[in-house]
Amino acid sequence: MSTPGDKIKAARNRRRLSFAPRPRVTPQAIVKERIDTVKKKGIYLLPNLFTLTSLFSGFYAVVFAMQGDFEKAAIAIFVSMVLDGCDGRVARLTHTSSSFGVEFDSLADMCAFGMAPALVVYQWTLHGLGRLGMAAAFVYCAGAALRLARFNTNVGVVDKSFFQGLPSPAAAALVAGFVWLAVDQRIPVDSAWLPWMALVITVYAGLTMVCNAPFYSGKSFHYGRSVPFWFLIAAVVLLFVVANDPALVVFILFCLYALSGFVYQFYLWYTGQNNPVRPKDDIIELDEPSEDEK
């Protein structure tokens, strides 16, 4: 049976334990804990396999460009874009979304839609402009990196129906589409105007990725809902037009999409509506000093 003295000693011991210094958490311990968590949970194969294939396609585009086959290099970037659009949807359909997949997708996008298009267009014609061409390719590459970083930090903040700035796959399609069109139309690479046109498109795509113009994302469209019959007819007509001259039609479509954000932003400004992708400024309320503190 415990005595009053024992109870006092137990209370003192509890106080000592509560005020005991906690062990210091080092960055190495945090990294080790995250690695152990990944090992325990494992990695979902199906969505990350799409991401890995998209990364490989972007890498293959650079290899084709180094070999001088720019048409295959441009097509490889478009293949990477299709695969990138599948990995997220597959993860949501199969309930295999993970933080690892999100980070892996961002790194793969930087390689496939940041580095690959910049290297392809530089190797194709921008190298003829010297340092100016190299600067244009770097502007695009830096814009893609900043675009992906801002996208990761603004998840859950901006409206999901719109992208804040031109998405990196669309920017890559704009640059690669111009390369594909020029090669398909057999435009001489030594044409005086061709490097400058490539420079304008590359710089425009790079700067548009970091702007605040709203570009429709298509995430609000539900693929499971019913659509009118004319919608299917329009899809058939679109497929026919694309099959007739894919390089020209694809480039025109992405040019229109790259301009749509600024057109919609002007419409919002003209009608006095707020930009749906610009986060609202945080309002910090300061407590007014009381009469005693004055």
Characterize the structure shown:
The chain is mainly alpha-helical and 294 residues long. The chain has one domain: CDP-alcohol phosphotransferase transmembrane (TM) domain (Four Helix Bundle (Hemerythrin (Met), subunit A), Up-down Bundle). The protein is built from 10 helices and 2 strands. The chain has helices at residues 4-18, 27-41, 45-66, 70-93, 99-124, 131-153, 168-184, 194-208, 229-244, 246-271; strands spanning 162-164, 214-216. Strands 1-2 form a two-stranded antiparallel ribbon. Helix 3 packs antiparallel against helix 4 and helix 5 packs antiparallel against helix 6. The radius of gyration is 27 Å and the shape is globular.
Task: Describe, in short, the structure shown.
With 294 residues, this protein is mostly helical. It has helices at 4-18, 27-41, 45-66, 70-93, 99-124, 131-153, 168-184, 194-208, 229-244, 246-271; strands at 162-164, 214-216.
Element-level helix/strand string: HHHHHHEHHEHH
Average pLDDT level? 82
**Name of the CATH superfamily:** CDP-alcohol phosphotransferase transmembrane (TM) domain
Number of domains: 1
Largest sheet: 2 strands, antiparallel
In the CATH classification, which architecture applies?
Up-down Bundle
N- to C-terminal distance: 58 Å
Give helix % range.
55-70%
According to DSSP, the number of beta strands is 2
Major sheet: arrangement of strands: 1-2
Shape: globular
Structural class assignment: mainly alpha
Question: What is the top-level CATH class?
Answer: Mainly Alpha
- Which oligomeric state applies? single chain
Report the CATH topology name.
Four Helix Bundle (Hemerythrin (Met), subunit A)
Given as residue ranges, the uncertain stretches (5+ residues, pLDDT < 50) are 282-287
Number of helices: 10
